[in-house]
Amino acid sequence: VEVKIEVVIPEKERSKEEMSPNGKASPLIYKVNGTARHYHLEEHPIASNPYHNPKDIVEASVCHVKDLENGQMREVDLGCGKALLIKENGEFHAVGHKCPHYGAPLVKGVLSKGRVRCPWHGACFNIGTGDIEDFPSLDSLPRFQVKIEKEKVYIRASKQALQTQRRTKMMAKCISLSNYNLSSTNVLIIGAGAAGLVCAETLRQEGFSDRIVMCTMDRHLPYDRPKLRKWLFLQSMDSHPEQIALRSKEFFCTYDIEVLTEMQVAAVDIKSKIAVFKDGFKMEYNKLLIATGNTPKALSCKGKEMENVFNIRTPEDANRVVKLATSKNVVIVGASFLGMEVAAYLAERAHSVSVVELEEVPFKKFFGERVGRAVMKMFESNRVKFYMQTEVSELREQEGKLKEVVLKSGKVLRADVCVVGVGAVPATSFLKQSGINMDSKGFIVVNKMMQTNIPGVFAAGDAVTFPLALRNNKKVNVPHWQMAHMHGRIAALNMLAHGTEISTVPYLWTAMFGKSIRYAGHGEGFDDVVIQGDLDELKFVAFYTKSDEVVAVASMNYDPIVSKVAEVLAAGRTIRKRDVDTFVFLSFRTGDMSWLTGKGS
């Protein structure tokens, strides 16, 4: 028996790729000298389908058909690139071997029920189509056709697909942009983060060919905020926002997604369906998505406005902090994810790094005291000093610049730079008089379809509370990058009346000193933590339980256990506290995923 893998694009999709219904690149709209202006990028002709070129095709024998059992994956080398060969339910499938998000090896991920989940950040891909089933990846996997002949496995694939390891799903374009008035659009998206971008892309992927306008207070097109926060792009002093852009300018032009930068919405008139901008410009809409995210909290003490005190919000903020902090004294207020990631990054660059936090240990409410102490110990071994159970009472200056941070405990810390990471509030104050329903904290309340109480108005991302299926539809706020992507997709599908409800499992990660903590679920209100592994060695998995049920999991150096738990929860199954030991043994040590089918003991 032989297995052959060949890249195939259906004729229908080929015609989509090779034809442009618009014929013109759409304008990007930028704010220049206070005025919104159109700029057209040069139109780049779409290249002929690469699979039509015989020189682009490679074929190689990789294994015997019996080498793979059901439920197994194998990374196979074709000489000029690799593919992921999968066998499930007696059928072979082949897709790209790297997650398009950050390049994780999917062979180390989790295979279950027709999809593979990334071991690093939880993105999921359909093994039959390569399509995204969960985020944070924006691109799908290339899919290769599998054929069985004789007793060898051959893979026939495009060199280009093997090298890029990603596929952008076919998208529609705006049929006739010239027919629109500048001050009206079919879909208006307020906010250009992950939720807004995925909403726009999903609309195009679903064939929506009307006008889409995104607006943002930022100077930049949508960028990868976790990279900003996790400092992955700050490897040189001349880093630029383009290095962390989620999509290129050409992408927005090609698919007629217009972007208004440095444009702030001041009010929304839901009766007239008009968004009013801060500069007086008005835009009429048919469907509206509010995805404004949050705003960092500022300190309330004396001296909070002085120079060298930062909230990390933009690439410019991040670059400036790095430049000013090198070989200087840094004080970080708040042992939040932001604060701790900044502390880890600056530990080797600054003269000193101090963290001030009101709680007894970092991450106590999120990861629990034992995990928090283990993380704290790791930081202390890397020269980071902690001042816990205290707050900042005053920031002192010398010649207009920060000199000292005074704590309520009476301690005075030398400081050339202060980074504030004490939480955030939803950026929704402009909606107070709109009639859109918000809770007491300012979060927009939406249903499972991301709809607000106003017909045609949707909301997504960090600024919303929504029913979480995992926690019996409790209304929660989940400010995670992965969740914002899914919110945007669900909102887009329901703008098109698909009636799709959100059911994804929250997934997040944080990186510090070259080590990652991965987390899945929603552990708010957990009452116990069951830990497997060794906290002192920073190799552990922590199960967060409420009553007898596991509601979340975190791990360090224990991949892919978090992705396995995420798959169990996504399948609607429950892990009981008493079963944690068995689960870890079966799913991690033996690779048994029968928990997903209800066959596990």
Automatic annotation (TrEMBL):
One of its GO terms (cellular component) is mitochondrion. Keywords: 2Fe-2S, Apoptosis, Electron transport, FAD, Flavoprotein, Iron, Iron-sulfur, Metal-binding, Mitochondrion, Oxidoreductase, Transport. GO terms for molecular function: 2 iron, 2 sulfur cluster binding; metal ion binding; oxidoreductase activity, acting on NAD(P)H. Its main location: mitochondrion. GO terms for biological process: execution phase of apoptosis. Residues 60-155 form the Rieske domain. The keyword RNA-binding does not apply. It is found in: Mitochondrion. InterPro entries: FAD-oxidoreductase/Apoptosis, FAD/NAD-bd_sf, FAD/NAD-binding_dom, FAD/NAD-linked_Rdtase_dimer_sf, Reductase_C, Rieske_2Fe-2S, Rieske_2Fe-2S_sf. Gene3D superfamilies: 3.30.390.30, FAD/NAD(P)-binding domain (3.50.50.60), Rieske [2Fe-2S] iron-sulphur domain (2.102.10.10). It holds the Pfam family Pyr_redox_2. Induces apoptosis through a caspase dependent pathway. Reduces mitochondrial membrane potential. PANTHER family: APOPTOSIS-INDUCING FACTOR 1 (PTHR43557), APOPTOSIS-INDUCING FACTOR 3 (PTHR43557:SF8). This is Apoptosis-inducing factor 3. It comes from Serilophus lunatus (silver-breasted broadbill). The gene is Aifm3.
